[in-house]
Amino acid sequence: MRLILTGMVLAVIAAACGSGATAPLVGPVDVDVDTRLALFGLYGGYRLVRERDEDPSEDLSQQLIAGGAVSAWNDRLTLRLDSELAFGGRNDVSDYTTRAILGADFKLLQDVSLFAEQEFTFGPDEDTADTRLGIKATPWKGGRLRTSLEQQSAENGARLFANVGLDQTWQLSKVWGLSFSLNRSATLRHPGSTPFNADVPPASGTADDDFTSISFGTSHQLPDQSWSSRLEFRHGSEEDKWGFFTGFHRELGDGIGYSASLKLFDTDTDQDEKTEADLSFGFVYRPLASRWIVLDRLEFAFEDQDGDGFDFRSRRLVNNLNANFSWNRYTQLSFKYGAKYVLDRIDDEDLAGFTDLMGVEMRRNLGERFDFGTHARVRHSWDSELYDSSVGVSLGYRVVTNLWVSFGYNFTGFRDRDFSDSDYTSQGAYFQFRYKFDHHTIRDLLLPNE
Question: 363 CB contacts (<8 Å, ≥6 apart)?
């Protein structure tokens, strides 16, 4: 299980002088200036990654994130710097290590751009240096072509490989759309030696896995409903995959809507084969004149893995119900009830059980920007008669309209992949975002993976 929390602060600064031009900044804000010389973009943030598998130990990485970009020559040239600095004495997760990327984009023609990147990573297992050169083009309407040459240099040698990709979209009518994608990665020169530990994934780029992938998609859009689907095949030297996604949503009006989605994935390697499926239904109730907000999500998940001396099969039926009540303009109450039935089969042993969760939270505004909250949750495993609790407090700050950041601490806690996605239930300190939605954001909440 991997938990990733990221906080980000953005800033954009325009520098210009001359006569008679307009420099657009962020959103609807415009600044009237003369001739624009450059547009600077800056950002900074913090990332916390916790990774835990069957082993009771926990891998932890904390990062400070900072970077910026500057555009010049009438936006034909863009220079970029992105950095992620691990700190706190822990740098365990190889995917989130110290890294720095220097990049440049140059608009050669109106629809053709050149790009170059140099990336350095410094991790607990190895240090790497990657060089990427490529071309991005829009040769025709709806088409995007990209090709690149990349060299990865690590402790076991250098690997040179090429990437090429083509994306195409067609708007057949006002309501129907089609999409197509083709990607290919091929190794031109292999490293001179084998990795010290083949089980450790690279901190940058990919392992030595040449692949070809192709995907097809379709969509149907109406004012009050939409449907989309996508089918993808990927043939690689290490594994073969195929995946399918389809989703539908409809808004009934006055802040009420529902959705349905299906995801299927199959992965085949020399050692084993893994099949995953997820069927979900969602409902949202948020009338503008009501003080209640209700979200409900029912999910059936299937996972089947065979081979390599280990057979595993899992079936999970999970429902999460969340309700929020505005007591007055200063106080809000939230209620949650989750229930799941799990049926697992490991080799020849069957495991089954019913578990539910009940939770309540109270939040109180402290002025215009701050709020304070306290919460309690109890998880009950009925077959084993075990109880776990998560009790804590949090302090929130409103960054902009409808967006809060919260810093909290749980005095007791537990982990549950089916109940902990929307709430941090583990013991200890945490940091999270909260977003207040209205009827304009119902579709995004109902179909987050569309």
Answer: 331, 332, 334, 371, 372, 373, 396
Long-range contacts of 412-420 (CB under 8 A, 24+ apart): 413/389, 414/379, 414/388, 414/389, 414/390, 415/1, 415/52, 416/355, 416/357, 416/379, 417/1, 418/316, 418/318, 418/320, 418/338, 418/340, 419/320, 419/338, 419/340, 419/357, 419/379
C-alpha closest to that of 264 among 281, 278, 248: 278
pLDDT in tens, 176-233: 999 999 999 998 877 654 544 445 455 454 555 789 999 999 999 998 999 999 999 9
For 53, other C-beta atoms within 10 Å of its C-beta total 10
- Quote the longest CA-to-CA distance of the chain: 78
Q: Given a cut of 80, is residue 403 above it in pLDDT?
A: no
* pLDDT average, residue stretch 357-376: 93
Here the tokens at position 222 are: 């109406």
Compute the chain's Rg from CA coordinates.
Answer: 25
Domain with CATH 2.40.170.20 in the chain: 209-450
Q: Going by C-beta distance under 8 Å and a sequence separation of 6 or more, which residues neighbour residue 196?
A: 125, 126, 155, 156
The CA-based dihedral angle spanning residues 26, 31, 36, 39, taken in that order and rounded to the nearest 10 degrees: -20
Average pLDDT over every residue of 34-53: 64
* pLDDT classification of 437: cutoffs 50, 70, 90: low
| Angle of CA points 314, 413, 49, to nearest 5° | 75
- CATH topology for 209-450 is Maltoporin; Chain A (2.40.170)
pLDDT greater than 90 at residue 323: yes
Q: How far apart are CA 16 and CA 34, in angstroms?
A: 7
